[in-house]
Amino acid sequence: MAVKKHLNISDIEEIVSKYNIGKLVHFKSIESGSVQLNYLLITEKRKYVLRYYCEERSKESVLFELNLIIYLLKHGYPTASPVKDVSGGYINFHEDKSLMIFEFIEGKHVENPTIIQRNLLIKKVAELNGITKNYRPVYRKFRWNYNQEFCRNLAKEKASEIGSENAKEKYWWMAGELEKLNLPSNLTRGVCHCDFHYSNIFFDDDRFVALIDFDDANYTYLTYDLVSLMNPFLPEFSWKTWEKFDREENILVFDECRDILREYLKYRPMSFLEKRHIFDVCKLNILIDCLWYFRRGKVEDFFEKRKIDALNTLGREKFFGNLFE
To answer: I need a labelling partner for 220 at 20 to 30 A (CA). Which of 20, 38, 125, 186 fits?
Structure first.
């Protein structure tokens, strides 16, 4: 992975000069889960956040994010507001990479949320999905939209890049699992956030303040965010511990999933079609994870494969019954 090139004080001052936000007093890098570089800016006027797209992002991809944020703000959704520059635009460039400045959000990141905080997040995710239901962004084709074709193509690209027999076999396994998915063309889509890392969520005690960082947001099946919150696997079963479990051992548990689902349905009703195919979206979510960790594990047995195997053994009907009946 390439080392991120941080901005220096001259870079920051040049960028700030393009905005009516006052003279720069201090800045520091914000260490978070984001793949992009973020900086806290303190000016004579107030605090801001500079988001520098150091990872390769086209202008159109950043415009997708900007337009989505503006759309959400118009619908009263709590997120950080972008700041206009002196020419009235939002996106600027430094060394051919895009950047935006956002208003600073007062709040705290909570790594281990309480039940109240968890339920607030579920509520805000449901509201987000309700707002973006059938929203068709102009620049959606410039994003990595999570679907079978995207997953298959990127897996093939990664297998070719690695070039090993294991990578090739892992691609064919993924391609076979993608073929098993039943995702109808009329299954409800919209824009999902797709990254609920705690560093992207702000709380003020038991008040939800904002959801930020739409760098991974894309046009996909609307239940993708829901399955990202649900975890139908034992808490003890993780990428650090999975090898300690026998292959035949049951690793599925649905109590928390049902709690999350009930909370979600209070704020966004799901169609019967969405409910019937949440099993397939859940499997797609795991296969997308395979992409990010493609180099990890042997094709015969690895963390994400154990999850897929467990769901295949259970089957769509029993999965549905465990959630909804």
So the answer is: 38
Can you list the residues of the chain whose pLDDT is less than 50?
1
Set out the domains of the chain in order of their start, with CATH numbers. Answer: 9-103 (3.30.200.20), 115-324 (3.90.1200.10)
How far is residue 267's CA from residue 263's CA, in Å, rounded to a whole number? 8
d(CA 126, CA 266) in angstroms, rounded, equals: 9
At 26, which helix (H) or strand (E)? strand 24-29
Provide the 8-state DSSP code for 108.
B
pLDDT in tens, 70-83: 999 999 999 999 99
Please list, residue by residue across 20-41, b when 16 or more beta carbons sit within 10 angstroms of its beta carbon and e when fewer do.
ebeebeebeeeebebebbbbeb
Record the tokens describing residue 129, joined without a space. 């999905």
Q: What is the dihedral of CA 18, 93, 216, 70, to 10 degrees?
A: 40
Sign of the alpha-carbon dihedral angle for 263, 269, 272, 277: negative
- Distance between CA atoms of residues 175 and 254, nearest Å: 27
Beta strands in 30-164 (DSSP E): 37-43, 47-52, 92-94, 97-103
State the amino acid at position 215 in one-letter form. D
Query: pTM for the complete prediction?
Result: 0.95
Residue found by looking up tokens 């990595």 in the block:
144
